[in-house]
Amino acid sequence: MALRLVTHFDVQEDVLPSLLAQGVTSDEGDGAGVLETTYGSLRVLNIERNGNIIYTYKDTKGNPVFGLYDCQTRQNEHLYTFEKDMQAVGCSVNSERTVLAASLIQYTKEGVRSELQPVGSKCLTLLVEIHPVNNVKVLKAVDSCIWVQFLYPQTESPRLPQNHLLLISEEKYIERFHIHITREDGDRVVIRNSSHLQRDRIAEDFVWAQWDMSEQRLYYIELKESRSILKCIQFWADESFNLMFEMPLDISLSGLRFKLVNFGYDYCQHREKLSEQPCLCIFTNHTGSLCVCYSPKSDSWKEITYSVFYLHKGYRKTFTVVPGSADSQVTNNITFLNLGYFVAVYAPGHFLHLLNIQHPDLICHSLFLTGNSKMAAALPLSPLQSLPGSLILDCYSGKVYRATLDQSYLMQFLWTARLDCEKMAALHCTLSCGRDPGFPEEQIIQWISEHVSACHSFDLIQEFLVASCYWSVFPELDDTDMLLPYSSVLAWNAEIPGIKLVTEELPLPLVKVYNLRGYWAKLNSNLEYVKYTKPHLHYHNNVVRREWHNLISEERTGKRRSTMYVRNILENAVKVISNMDMRTLEPRLIPLLQEEDRHQRLLMGLMVSELRDHLLRHLQGVEKRKIEQMVLDYISKLLDLIWCLLETSWRKHTARPLVLHLNNHGSAADFEVFHLMTRILDAASSLCFPLPPGFHSLHTILGVHCLPLYNLLHYIDNGVLLLTETSVMRLMKDLDNSEKNEKLKFSIIVRLPPPIGQKVCRLWDHPMSSNIISRNHVARLLKNYKKEPRNSMIDKSSFPVEFLPLNYFIEILMGLESSNQALYGFEGHDNVDAEFVEDAALKHTTVLLGL
Q1: pTM of the complete model
Q2: Which of 17, 416, 569, 693 has the smallest number of CB atoms closer than 10 Å to its CB?
């Protein structure tokens, strides 16, 4: 199952045993019957901002009893008992648990609503002093239903002596009551001026409203000239409230009766009533996203349509899906569940879609499990209500679940998925769980290493590196959403089987308050980004690529940049490697980070510098030290992922440690690792990502193991294999001077840059090496040589071989060496002189003549 539901609260297990232990059931009458009455009437009524759960049940006399379950202490507390046979509609308690508000309806024994006495109203809304039990005040006595909700301001200052209560009427208005409380006789709480409570009219003439208990926000929709206008009111800790925005929604609410979401849980709403109305709910999260999820009333189960308004992105996506088998006996309404970065679209037994709310731009980042009943088998068949904090309430069982993505299922799905879009979506879903316990990073890397060639629509290694690095730092700073790339794919035009999608642009909501803070500041930042940012602010390595190539070119041509500039870049690389050493707890099989590899260190340092400047430029107010560490973590994660990919592949194909020797023939394991390294190199080169120092040496050594000489040289000439000093030194030492190896060594040496070639030749005790050393020595001596007339006769007795052209040439060299001692010697090789050149020339001639 893609979703994992963990029971957070169960009214039957967390409340019922406590009630029985407290003797809530009387000894009078049939004990079994009393227990059955209590069990049947026990249900969740409301969940407050602090997580405390208010429940209700009927005592032996049929009186409604209200209790509270403290989610911190996991203890139950009795709040109040109304000594009348009434049915609770809504209930809320203030944060101090001193004042209780409740709305009740009285029923006859036949279950028909009757008028209360002494007034002729049907719904009674009461305010009760419960610490200790004192007075009861009637707030409303009307024919329509009333719901109540205390505000819970979050403030570090001492709690205010004033409470605020929202009263929501079925007559389509919302009021806020100001309740001043005072303490008498120690802890005795009394409502001051209870005969006249001040009130404000918050909203009226609305058809739909949703309460966000976590963030203290009220969303509601007004119908104006057949248009649905969405509005939002934010309640602040200082007792004020503001209309934050209003936004027209192109949806039909003609069939929508008066409906409330999260204002308590009204069990009077029957299942048939739920199925007759469209589904509408709003989800936000701390990153500044704002989504309106809407599904119209459906007359047929053959095709389901729903829309998601991504107001923080400025567009709407409408999905049409064929859910699956038509004979499944389920209701034809769907449910939206908030999972933070994802929204689950759920229909029991039919389909489950995981919509990526954080990155909805690419449809391939959303997972569509359409038509597979096994995907949704674990979810209850009863209606579910989504709550903040990824909580879900099963209204009929009284259970509250905490919903998370099931990592084990997603991993199984990764191994069996056939479509590229499914692999992409499942990968992002899994990576978004990076900070959860038991995060299967090793399993993801195992899957990546075995499926590098399985995706045709995108480069799997590139996507893994970009997405994994993004999700590794995203929880630290939400604003990186706009600054760091989250995918290597720029556009996705392929269709997803079973899904029809229509995307429409929307006018952006206009946030009306200028003093924005918290969530509203982030939402406004998202809106500003959509409106004005062109091009997008996502970091890319184009500047790094250009500067890196410039530095390498300058080194080859002998030009030198500022010493301080290059030193700072290399110091950045040292910081990254040091940060990696701190993160690496276990020894690795593959010896990387153990050689200099100046080019990769330059690239690494340049990326640190450019990425740090990019974030400092756009993250105003964030500590420089925090940004510095985030950049080091980001690049360290990138290098570590590459290292782990190699380790995983090596462990899979062989159990022995990797030894960098060339005296053995390549095995199948060597070829598999070589192939993976070639794919990693291609992916990193396209993105201009640095590789761990030592990567190119290992790649070249494996290439020598696995490739015929022609292919090996072709890889070298085309830049696939990069000859490093470490790899060539190892090649010269480990390979003997057989005919095959001589050909290989010579082919390698002639392709080396001069500085490395001069060092390598001194290690190879072979006429060819001596020939190359001699040529380099002669080239240096004759670089500025000017021919002068020579009258002296050659003394043949001073030369062991009578070969006039060679003797004449050696005499010139000896003269130059004696006249310019500064040129004498060859890079510390004391035996390189005219005599060495003569011996090398003779040996080379002998080889050529076959003597």
Answers
A1: 0.84
A2: 416
